[in-house]
Amino acid sequence: MERVRIDIAGIVQGVGFRPFVYNLARKHNICGWVLNDAGGVRIEAEGRAGALAEFLAGLKTEPPPLAVITAMSHVKLPLAGDTEFVIRHSQLSTKRLALVSPDVATCPDCRRELLDPADRRFGYPFINCTNCGPRYTIIEDVPYDRERTTMAEFAMCPACRSEYENPADRRFHAQPNACPICGPAYRLLDNRGRELAGDPLAEARRLIIGGNIIAVKGIGGYHLVCDAANSQAVAMLRTRKIREDKPFAVMCGSVEAVNRHCQLSSEEEELLKGIVRPIVLLPKAAEYSLAEAVAPGNPYLGVMLPYAPVHWLLLAAEDVWVMTSGNTSDEPIAFQDEDASARLSGIADYFLVHNRGIHSRADDSVARIFRSQPYILRRSRGFAPGPVILAEEGPAVMACGGELKNTFCLTKGNLAFISAHIGDLENMATFESYTAAIEHYQRLFEIRPEVVAYDLHPEYLSTRYAQTLALPRVAVQHHHAHIAAVLAEHGLNEPVIGVAFDGTGYGADGHLWGGEFLLADCREFTRLAHCRYLPLPGGSKAIIEPWRTAAWVLRDLYGDEFINKPIPLVGLLPEGWQLALDAAAKGINTPLASGAGRLFDVAAAILGIRTRINYEGQAAVELELAAAGAKGIVLPYTISDQSVPELDFRPTFAALAESVRPAADRAELAAAFHTTMAAAIAEMVRRLSRETGIRKVALSGGVFQNMTLLGQVIDLLEKQFTILLHRYVPPNDGGLALGQAIVARERSK
After folding, report:
1. What burial class does residue 446 get, using C-beta atoms within 10 Å of its C-beta: 0-12 exposed, 13-18 middle, 19+ buried?
2. Which residues, 6+ apart, have CB-to-CB distance to 459 below 8 Å?
3. Count of other CB atoms within 10 angstroms of residue 43
4. Looking at residue 253, what DSSP letter applies?
5. Rounded distance between C-alpha atoms, residue 30 and residue 11, angstroms
6. Does residue 385 have a cis peptide bond before it, meaning omega lies within 30 degrees of 0?
7. Closest-CA residue to 409 (of 508, 484, 513)
8. What's the longest Cα–Cα distance across the chain?
9. What is the DSSP string of 24-50?
10. How many CA atoms lie within 13 A of 598 on its CB side?
């Protein structure tokens, strides 16, 4: 006979781990106990040596589906003579290492009960068990027990209590466990707060089908919902939400409904149906029949399947509804009832609300399939706060992230906890959400940062926040952080050629970078090459109005005579355009930028595709869409012979300007721009590899959300180089904080 103490860290609370341990112990005739503590799960197990060995092996190989074990250790103890195996109450402790499960989709067992008229939870929109349901969004503190969640106010009825206390039951210690008798409930209100009679869900469905817009409170916040086939309702939602062109996401009631409107591969279907249930970008089908305003001018549609019980109850199998974040443009998603009422009453006609509190907001995640694997574009519900496991331990760091698509990151030991998507830190509401989430993460994981990392840009709110903290500070250059994030994902800390292509990031020379070739590891970087600087006439206005930089490029190429050339942009220039260029020529509010995103803007404007944008990256998105299905040639470009070479695309722009005549030319020329950009990147990488001897290439930055460019770059390089891509965090600024944290840890050693 032997006795051991086993400590298990990871996502092992609230996922059915203790009943799994209990049943595994009974299977192997093990006595002792299991409990949750602030470090995860602790077990004391006593039995015959062979049985103990099988028990230990089973802990690793047979855990529940939502469990993630990051560390497991055991030590021998004196025999205690236990005669049974029991589940003990959780222990509080000052040392917290326990991880928290993300919110996951309703499991098949709960869906079956939800739709079974004979089940006592038939039609109950808060059904859950240890294998599914809300987690992170309801947790106020750890250990993860009901009294430290927003379910604390709901006392379980005898039937629910019996399930909760039965180790053999699927709902044993499922903290959100409830039923219609004792749990939360929905109400339907008009936008003045008056309650409507009747069944709330049935009435909400009737109103949505009737063309109304409903604010629906879900797991991580509110959605704004309308019928995606109703053109008038979708147009009204666009107007009220102040969202001019950016596509809406939709929720389909079934995979069959997805197939009616989209082309769906087996990998995309698997991603749609998994436990995360992100929004997945899918190509529209030929018979697509939803309102044009859902995704105007876009051959792709952002689609998700139901993931909360309320979705299964609201949507029929054939339904396709717009399901967009409950906010106005540029604000965080609403998740508190009073705030939602105040902010959304001018958008929604009705509110479907419930009385279970949401402690932490979590917007929907966004992903697509690239080369048969998920490629994350927004990491939020279903992923956060699950950690990225790092290659080694290091000091506790808080990384504040960037300004656009902000996330922050806290590290502890060998774990990096990246926040759910915060949004663009451009207003006070988002900033307050950001600071509240930081405080919650620090408390939840008991992380006391020793260092704070931040972006070089002095005007970012995240930078200003970092500078208010009484901690040693590490400023991390924007594009170095992008490349370091890729290295962190792959567990590497060695020099690579980093290609960091995005719109804007503050450079070490005070200019705006964004078309960068770096020699970088997790500590330092050297700028090996970059795209040639372009002036931005009007500063930030040039980002919103790409005609400004495009007109500057054309005047630089042709002088004032460009206005007489048959270039689509010429007919689209606004009145007074000359004044903007004249001011720029005098250096008035005209920063220099090497951003690759600006190059896409210029190409899109020259071709007349987009001269003014309504959301970030719109010109580049529409340029890629214009190139779809067309075959492009490599247009001229040059690489300078300076000590830090520059990629110059002015010859490319000249070729575009001199080639485009009818609109029919645009597809081939848009494709040619992508082909040229890919060829130039590949040539520069090969040149730098010959100089440095490095054969690993890391690709990061928002420009590499462009699947056309990314695919072509990989095709040109993969036979000669090891290509490192993001898989766990986004290539855009949503992954920036991870890179900042890694660099700060290395510099703090």
Report:
1. middle
2. none
3. 26
4. S
5. 24
6. yes
7. 484
8. 95
9. HHHHTT-EEEEEEETTEEEEEEEE-HH
10. 32
| DSSP string across 142-191 | SS--GGGBTTTTSPPPHHHHHHHH-TTSTTTT-TT---TTTS--EEEEET
DSSP state of 427: S
- Strand, coil or helix: 137: helix
Tokens of 691: 């100089």
The pLDDT-based confidence of 96 (bands split at 50, 70, 90) is: low
| Predicted pLDDT at 11 | 82
What is the spatial distance between Cα 544 and Cα 537, in angstroms, rounded to a whole number? 11
Dist CA 518 CA 499 (whole Å): 6
Q: Which amino acid is at 397?
A: V
Whole-model pTM? Answer: 0.92
Distance CA(210)–CA(230), nearest Å, equals 9
According to DSSP, the residues that pair with 74 across neighbouring strands are 6
Tell me the helix, strand and coil percentages in the chain, rounded to 5. Answer: 35, 25, 40
CB-CB contact of 213 with 349 (8 Å): yes
With CA atoms as reference, report the closest residue to 331 among 251, 420, 431.
Answer: 431
The amino acid at residue 408 is F
pLDDT of residue 284: 95
Helical spans, DSSP H, in 292-427:
309-314, 337-344
Residue-wise pLDDT tens digits, 37-90: 877 899 999 999 999 999 999 999 988 877 888 889 999 999 999 999 998 877
Q: Rounded CA gap, 363 and 43, in Å?
A: 36
CA distance 339 to 358: 12
Long-range contacts, 669-672 (Cβ 8 Å, 24+): 669/607, 669/632, 670/603, 670/604, 670/607, 670/609, 670/623, 670/624, 670/626, 670/627, 670/630, 670/632, 671/627, 671/630, 671/631, 671/632, 671/708, 672/632, 672/633, 672/634, 672/635
